[in-house]
Write a structure and sequence with these properties.
The structure holds 2 protein chains of 2 kinds. Chain A is of the alpha/beta class. Chain A has 15 helices and 11 strands. Chain B is about 60% helix and about 0% strand. The chains are: A alpha/beta, B mainly alpha.
Chain lengths: ~375, ~250
């Protein structure tokens, strides 16, 4: 059992992390949260004085890519520090305990720290067949989730699965997977979408909660504004090419080699809210657009159901045949144009006929 | 004067007629040679400004979704998408202010400034006229519906194919615009809920684009109907939108 009354600093110290590294982390955390240098002392103070908040990390129907991303948080120390910073008391993926031992931790934390622990959820809840599609320890995941979240301070929905449903909830959604917020309705659910979310975003949000004892400001959809208030497009380094009208027209053309805008290749940057174009991935080395591929919009709701990743206009599937807005629009316009032409011709014909009858004398005149 | 002008078979206005409110519409029949002041100057100005805006919005809007062929050279030398988007946003502001003004004018203008904003399905005379208008437009009768204002079917079309789609385009348009102006902008404050309603803004892009095609369909039908009525109805239509006066030529 981890000792929960330790402060962060005590914990770090015990783990052999130097004071210097600790201060480095605090500075990095401040920068990551978009705070100035003057915020560093308050973060240090908080880390030194506050007992750690226990975090229970649940895994539902998911692929573990969120965890994979999380443990790759960029700065070498961050990985260690964050992992020890949150008192990650239960994470069935990486904890040493298993079986009954692990369940006991869950039990103890939820009863001892009522209203004082955070629940981080990776993956979503399949509702079909009474939750049969995700069983943990002989119980459906939805049941465990409700139980664990009951006395939680707040719930963090990691990734697009927990936030929106992601691939499991894509049409036709055979397991009836639903995002966390449709099961847990009485708690603040902080959504951190992305498939997976960026490691620094994940650690940044936890750091914020733990340091300032409050939740980050959320947007209308429940995402922290500090990371999800701008689109990929707004901060994309290829934006000048977009404004200039310079596009990649086909893969491997001149524009692709010169790094032009991927808009015509179906880049979803203009409709995707995330921090990829500022924070980047893998220690800030790159992000999809930087690597020459358009954004697929993985942090957006139902991004799997928005047609091809490679077309700018979304397919509309309600008509049985897949067609995009322009195809439907062109067809409608053709129908309208055809109807106008036919109507004009019919009008003309009718009046010519009437005129002929009138001139012929004795016509009924219609 | 018209190519298809036929011999008069019934007195002017024997078909459906629709006059100013307060006058029994069936009984109101404009006389040959009569002129009625229909479209006031602000309405005419709005109409042509609005038409210009729609042309700009459709052309630039189309090019935003399906951009022009790529340019080459230094990006600092070009600002094509930038100018296209600027034209779209500038025209959309004028369009929005124009429609807002037009709503306002409907409250203080004459009867004809109001009649495209609603259609009185609850009035027997209107529904009767609607059926007559429908028969005329389906070429089932020679009785030309004759009146100074918008015909019943036109009123339905104005609401369904112009006003509602326009409002839809304004609301979704500003919601999309709020994506660029940011979370603290007034656009997001007032229209951001649209983004939240559909969640994925890709859907709003798609719907906004479908709306563009609806506006185009409206334009095609509108122009056809106006030209047709100008030739067949026995009263001025196109000229009225320039001069404001509706001239009833009668049918000899």
């Amino acid at each position: 059992m981890p000792e929960l009354d330790q402060t962060y600093w005590e914990r770090f110290h015990r783990l052999g992390i130097s004071r210097r590294s600790f201060l480095q982390f605090c500075t990095l955390a401040a920068a990551g949260l978009g705070l100035g240098h003057e915020a560093v002392p308050s973060i240090v103070q908080a880390m030194e004085g506050k007992p750690r908040i226990p975090v229970l990390w649940l895994h539902g129907l998911e692929c573990t890519c969120c965890s994979e991303s999380f443990i790759r948080s960029s700065h070498p120390q961050v990985k260690d520090v964050v992992m020890s910073m949150i008192s990650l008391d239960y994470d069935d993926l990486i904890m040493a305990a298993a079986g009954k031992q692990a369940d006991a931790v869950l039990e103890e934390i939820t009863s001892t720290y009522k209203g004082r622990y955070l629940v981080a959820v990776e993956g979503n809840v399949p509702l079909a067949e009474d939750g049969m599609y995700c069983f943990i320890g002989g119980r459906p995941f939805g049941e465990i989730l409700k139980e664990v979240c009951h006395d939680a301070l707040a719930v963090v929905a990691w990734g697009s699965c927990a936030s929106w449903g992601c691939v499991q909830a894509a049409r036709p959604n055979p397991t009836k997977s639903v995002p966390i917020h449709s099961v847990i309705r009485d708690k603040t659910v902080i959504k951190v979408p992305g498939c997976p979310p960026i490691a620094e975003v994940m650690t940044g949000i936890l750091t914020y909660i733990l340091t300032f004892d409050r939740f980050p400001e959320l947007d209308r959809q429940g995402r922290p504004k500090m990371f999800f208030s701008q689109r990929i497009h707004d901060k994309c380094y290829r934006r000048p090419h977009f404004d200039a009208g310079q596009f990649v027209e086909t893969w491997d053309d001149e524009g692709a080699r010169k790094g032009y805008c991927l808009y015509k290749m179906g880049c979803k940057g203009p409709t995707t809210y995330n921090a990829c174009s500022t924070i980047g991935w893998n220690d800030g080395v790159s992000f999809p657009i930087k690597s020459g591929h358009g954004c697929i919009g993985c942090s957006e709701d139902k991004f799997w159901d928005k047609g091809s990743f490679y077309s700018r206009l979304t397919d509309i599937q309600n008509f049985g045949v897949e067609s995009n807005a322009d195809q439907i629009g062109t067809a409608a316009l053709a129908v309208a144009g055809g109807a106008v032409a036919v109507h004009a011709a019919a009008t003309s014909f009718k009046h010519m006929r009437d005129k002929y009858r009138d001139e012929g004398g004795g016509g009924s005149g219609g | 004067m018209g190519l298809w002008r036929t011999e008069s078979r019934e007195p002017l206005g024997a078909g459906a007629s629709f006059g100013p409110e307060g006058i029994e519409e069936e009984e109101y029949a404009p006389q040959a040679g009569e002129t009625i002041y229909v479209h006031e100057a602000p309405v005419r100005l709005w109409h042509w400004l609005n038409a210009a805006c729609i042309v700009i919005l459709v052309v630039t809007g189309y090019l935003i979704g399906v951009p022009l062929p790529s340019t080459t050279g230094e990006p600092s030398e070009w600002y094509i998408m930038g100018y296209i988007r600027f034209a779209h946003f500038a025209a959309s502001y004028i369009f929005t202010v124009g429609i807002t003004f037009r709503f306002f004018w409907a409250t203080i203008g004459n009867y004809y400034s109001r009649d495209m904003f609603y259609f009185p399905v609850w009035r027997r005379s209107w529904t009767n006229n609607f059926m007559r208008d429908l028969r005329w437009k389906l070429l089932l009768t020679d009785q030309v519906p004759c009146g100074a204002g918008h015909s019943p079917i036109t009123r339905v079309a104005m609401v369904g194919l112009f006003l509602l789609p326009s409002l839809f385009m304004i609301v979704t348009g500003f919601a999309l615009y709020s994506e660029a102006t940011g979370r603290d902008s007034w656009e997001h404050h007032f229209f951001g809920w649209i983004v939240e309603f559909w969640r994925n803004t890709q859907d709003i892009h798609t719907l906004h684009r479908l709306g563009m095609w609806v506006m185009l369909v409206f334009t095609v039908i509108h122009i056809y109907m106006v030209v047709r009525d100008d030739i067949l109805s026995g009263h001025s239509v196109i000229g009225t939108m320039f001069s404001g006066w509706r001239f009833f030529a009668g049918r000899r």
